[in-house]
Amino acid sequence: MKNIGAGLAWGSACVLMGHGPVAVAADAENAGAEDPRLGAVVVTAVRDSMRTALQIKRDTVEISDSVVAEDIHKLPDYSVAGSLQRITGVQITRDRGDGDRVVVRGLSQVETLLNGREIFSVNDAEDYGRSLNFAAVPSDLVSRIDVYKSASADHLDGGVGGTIDLRTHRPFDFAGHKVSVTAQGLHGDLAEQVGPKLSVLLSDRWQSAGWGEFGVLLNVFQQKRYYREDKKDTGAPLARTDIVPVRTVFVNGGTSEYVNLGDREHSGGNLVMQWRPVDNLELYAEASYFDFKTTEDTHQLNVVVDGSTSFVPGSAVLFPGTDDLQSITWTNAALSQLSFIRDTLDRTQQAAVGGSWTGKSASVRADLSYTKSINRLVFFGPFLSGTVAQFSQDMSGSVPSTSVSGTDLSDPATYTGATVGFANRPFAGELFAAQLDAEYFPDDSVIESWSAGVRHARRRGTNAPGQIGDFPAAGLSVPGAAALGLVGAPSYDNYLRGEGGASIDNYLVSNLDGARDIATYREAFGITSSIATQGNPLSLWTIDEVSTALYTKASFVGRTLPIDGNAGLRVVHTRESVDGYRSVPAAGGIAPVRVDSTSVDYLPSLNLRYELDPGLYLRAAASKTMTRPKLSQLSPSTTLFQNIVTPALSSGSGGNPDLEPVRANNLDIAVEKYIDAHSAVHVTAFWKRVRGFVTSVSAAEVHDGVTYQVTRPQNAGTGHIRGIEVGYQQFFDFLPGKWRGLGIQANYTYVDSGSTSIIVGQTVPLQNLSKHSANLVGIYERSRYSMRVAYNWRDDYLSGVTNVVGVGAVPVMTQAYGWLDASFRYRLDDRLTLAIEATNLLKTRRDANYDSRTRPRRSETNDAQVGVALTLAF
């Protein structure tokens, strides 16, 4: 078995051969040379990035935080989401080891920008078509991240939680020409493979007689990361009255044990051209793209326990003092083995042109942009079924123990049936936006500037040609498939790194080597029917949205008091047109439907900053904000799942075109003390009252004569979010000798939240929000080398709600966990930098339960990764 050491050796060899790893070299403008004077403080990349981020926070009137890249191609953390989680009030969730969803102060409804303009992804994550999938953004392309927690009238509407602005490099950022090339090899301990990465930045600026100054920058990125993700799920609790006499016992609904094996290919780039014909006029054109492709094989074994599964008499043991089952041996339990490919493509592209003019007492800015995003998911593979003689569960350990006896899972004859499933789900969206801003600077006035602007945007989202599903029975038996090599033993081991109790092994899986040739693979399993090219019309939808926003803002400064700030109003008019299909039971068919709606939102904002003492600031902010529902929630379409065996369990899901935006009133108060250029402490208290939280409600609906329990979103009542953020950073320059290179960043966030729940009579915390979270980052930077160790911890949080027949709605709670990353960088000379980066050093296992540790839900683990990198910059 390969190990991390082997990966490092391979990466180092690649560096020596000129093919491998790399991290960013110190920019000549940012990194100081080694000072020959003993004990001198040298300002280098990490220290300088912290200083710049702190200066941005200090200078910004709104309450905000920033992350600044240490060098070209080098955010402080491995990913954009990884860097964001270091900011107070920001929490992330992970998928396949990557940070993807971002929550700011408890809300996922965050406005995402690229260089100040809206950008989005149409994936199936939390906010379809409204926010960017941060896992899709190559961190090497980002020079700076600004997180605005209080609103201003000139900020784009749409961020109830806040606004995140990703900034990329521009040619006028550099004094002259700049070249940076970074190569890296990244090894995962579970995937046991090394993936390459290459980043290249080329930039130059020059004067042309009579034409002014020109600048061109090209930044491109390519990476392939191999990963493995192990998960062990325990079924939702079921109420049984036959386990213990005269007692209702809650039993676990079986087990699902699976391994995701795959790779993720990131590619991206941006091209920027700037032209400054005269000193006060600048024009630009730029284009950016992010491609995020996942190629994944999943092998999953399920043993299903339901309300009628028999058991060995006397084998049941309950957790002491509860009605929850601790261990039992079931008999004749249903078995299924699923092997399938799950490939996704997430692509976002943006092009923009614009310019700015600055006069003696006024300035004007204009921007025109077009954004396009697509997402594709292909799911395909065999499902094998059977029965196991005995299935034992023991929930007493940190990970449930499971085993099968009396049945040989490696024998093809154990599996009595096979189905080959296929699903294809497309999403697409586009946005055209035009913005014009003007600012006037009056002379000798308490008003520093008056600004006003207009933005017009047209957005479209669609899932045409709809979700396609096809699940025919295979014409080939499982023994026949095994004889052809289509079924065999799994190629992985060390499931969940051997943690917890026993897990089921030695079972058959399908060979997916040829599964991406779908037609040929289906034929091999004896399936000759063709796959539909169009989804059920009931699932189709197209949404057109037109919004026009006007704003005015006054920025002011006190004449006799050290106070400044801004006050403004943003007015947004939105028109939605939703097209789809609905079932018409009386006519025995379906019919097209179109729903039109309009809304007007008035969004006032106020930001104040008072300097109590040199370097000591008191801030206050108040605003109203709003976020429109995600596009898929607005669709009138319905996806139905008919249960032929048990018709009462037929279900469905759909949208609701009558949804209102989520709206919030916000109040913030902050105290900030800036000790020196690199050191500060700050405390912020915040409060939000949110109206119109979207929750899911189920109701019976009749489609084609069949009754389905259909879940649709609807606006709920009000909710609250309140909390406090504490942050501190400092370099200990007062320490003697080489100890002066030590620095620290630490922060803590407390958030209390509550919203209306589908759990009747309960107010629950917001989903994916921990009440407590903290970061601790240790830094040492001296002369040519720097080290950084970063630990992130978050408390328990609500990660979902499951509806269970006979039990009702049950919350799913993910348990507290910590995540440790580290990096080491050594500047070989003025042009070359060697870096070693590691993520998930603790090999964290994340656990979840059904609101009680006696009801386990999931255990999952991801790769610990180590990368070796080399950067050439000049």
Automatic annotation (TrEMBL):
Domain TonB-dependent receptor-like beta-barrel: 404-841
Main localization category: membrane
Signal peptide: 1-25
A family per Pfam: TonB_dep_Rec_b-barrel
Entry keywords, A to Z: Cell outer membrane, Membrane, Receptor, Signal, TonB box
Cellular component GO terms held in the UniProt record: cell outer membrane
Domain of life assignment: Bacteria
Residue intervals of the TonB-dependent receptor plug domain: 57-163
Compartments in which it is found: Cell outer membrane
Family per record: Belongs to the TonB-dependent receptor family.
PANTHER family, per the entry: PLUG DOMAIN-CONTAINING PROTEIN (PTHR40980), TONB-DEPENDENT RECEPTOR-LIKE BETA-BARREL DOMAIN-CONTAINING PROTEIN (PTHR40980:SF3)
The protein's name in its UniProt record: TonB-dependent receptor
